[in-house]
Amino acid sequence: MKVVIFMYPGVTMLDAIGPYEVLRNLQNSEICFVAEKKGLVKADSSFIEMNIQYDITEINHADILLIPGSLIEYLNIAKNKKILDWINKVSITSIKTVSVCTGSIILAAAGILQNKKATCHWSCIDLLSEFSAIPTRERIIQDGKIITAAGVSAGIDMAIHLVNQLEGRQSAEAIQLAIEYDPSPLFNSGNFSTAKPEVINLSKQKMELALAQSDLSD
């Protein structure tokens, strides 16, 4: 099972690493991290880097294609024709094409979500409609072979959902136990529909501050 995870400067690392921790436990899994160019990719936090071993000219097939999101760079990726063409080409070969957070906007920009329901991070989900997708506020949305997950942590749920489809419930439960994924949040504010208005406003301020502090320069 070849899992291809696309990485790019400014990526939100948990969008990729959360699902990776689940999907690497698939039977006969082969994980490939790929970027437009090989080398170091710095996360949107500016604190974490990953050394990517493959570039997009070397990867033409995936059983699972995963597009993570970003706090700062997803719109630039959504304008990069070379990357969008590659995503389209590889998605044609996939059993499942999946995204986390604003990765769905990249999929939508590639035309893969046209007239399909999709989810995204709550702060920018409405952008999906600009690319002819149908914004839907759910944690996980599946439309055909395309699965989109909401913000950041939802990628873990999406990956477990995916394992359930590919290998069945027992395997999905076993992997969930292996990573001890047993969330019990202290507060009921992790969903846009349950968060208080003042919490939503503060969350927006914190994201804006993080955006202002991001530095992807070498």
UniProtKB/TrEMBL annotation:
InterPro entries: Class_I_gatase-like (IPR029062), DJ-1/PfpI (IPR002818), INH-QAR (IPR052158). GO terms for biological process: regulation of DNA-templated transcription. Residues 1-164 form the DJ-1/PfpI domain. It comes from the Bacteria. Gene3D superfamilies: 3.40.50.880. Pfam families: DJ-1_PfpI. This is DJ-1/PfpI family protein. It comes from Aureispira anguillae.
